[in-house]
Design goal:
- The structure is a homodimer.
- Chain A is α+β, with helices and mostly antiparallel strands and about 150 residues long.
- The first copy, chain A, has two domains: about 80 residues, Orthogonal Bundle (Arc Repressor Mutant, subunit A); about 50 residues, Dna Ligase, domain 1 (2-Layer Sandwich), CATH 3.30.1490.190.
- In chain A, about 45% of the residues lie in helices and about 15% in strands.
- Chain A contains six helices and five strands.
- In chain A, the strands form two sheets. Chain A has a three-stranded mixed β-sheet.
- The interface between A and B is large, with 38 and 38 residues.
- β5 of chain A pairs antiparallel with β5 of chain B.
- The structure holds manganese (II) ion (2 copies) and zinc ion (ZN) (2 copies).
- One manganese (II) ion binds next to loops of chain B.
- The structure holds a DNA duplex (30 and 30 nucleotides).
DNA sequence: TCTTAAATAATAATGATTATCTTTTATTTG
DNA sequence: CAAATAAAAGATAATCATTATTATTTAAGA
């Protein structure tokens, strides 16, 4: 692991301060969840979590904080057509995901072969490529077992 | 090309009839657009196009028809977070796309390397994979020129 | 401590898509 | 061909995640 939760949190806080943002208790709580979660939480999940310590927090606060952190490049947003957005503050740079259509689990994937793939698409289409969104849908190991 | 517009249209009509759906003039017009378009049109684009011959058509009709055709597996839906959905009735099975962030052009990609990639994700995550959504974002050749 | 710009919280607005309901029509049957 | 009917069209309302607005509160620097 290049970045554990602590380092990610430090990075986020540093970036916010460096850009003149204030560190509020609510903001810090959101940052902590984003930096340590590997499960790609939704706004609702984050909201419910923060609510435990800040019972009056508004959903809008969660949305706005995520927007700020996203614009600073410190969280990756995964938007879906039906389900609501999911966030990765642990690995904020674009990477492939495996998504379980049963339990909605989202698992990171990091494969060298992606570079070759991207290069081939570049050659095939003539595009100058600088971003990607790669989702594989299927059944996670747990849900495969439960289907037996 | 395995399927030209004509064959795709025949396939779609056959599938609809085979499943007890009626062939209305409006539905046929939508099918024609979906089967021949290689530009991944939006609902709005389809609506505007059909409107030329059927001035009273409703957006709801376009939406409902696309839903039917999608459920029959004859059109691929590409949903986005900000922009509205785009549809591919020419190549209805999942395949990668190159998307221009400038002019919103969407170009098909079909590469053998995808099979290797999928296999590697399978091994890496333990998922049983049966679908994917792969988008590469960047600048198309035209928009690269216009930036010079 | 005082000042002030930024953040929070509550609430309204947005916009693409879906649902509902009435009218119209494609297809089947006699 | 005419009648019957289930499906489709068209109009409009509802949905729901997200964004915008606005009044109130607060973090952080002087
Ligand atoms: Mn991730
Ligand atoms: Mn396509
Ligand atoms: Zn699962
Ligand atoms: Zn372009």
């Amino acid at each position: 692991m290049k970045n554990d939760g602590k380092n990610r949190l430090e990075t986020m806080i540093g970036k916010l301060k460096g850009n003149g943002y204030k560190i509020t208790p609510q903001r810090l709580a959101i940052l902590k969840i984003l930096s340590t979660s590997i499960g790609h939480p939704s706004v609702e999940k984050i909201y419910e979590q923060v609510k435990k310590n800040f019972p009056t927090i508004s959903r809008a606060t969660v949305y706005k904080n995520i927007l700020v952190i996203k614009d600073l490049g410190e969280v990756l947003e995964l938007a879906f057509s039906n389900d609501s957005n999911r966030y990765d503050g642990h690995l904020p740079h674009p990477h492939p995901h495996a998504i379980c259509t049963e339990c909605k689990k989202i698992v990171d994937s990091e494969l060298e072969i992606l570079k070759d793939f991207t290069q081939k698409v570049r050659e095939e289409t003539g595009f100058r490529i600088y971003d990607h969104r790669i989702d594989f849908f299927g059944l996670c190991p747990d849900c495969q077992k439960n289907k037996e």
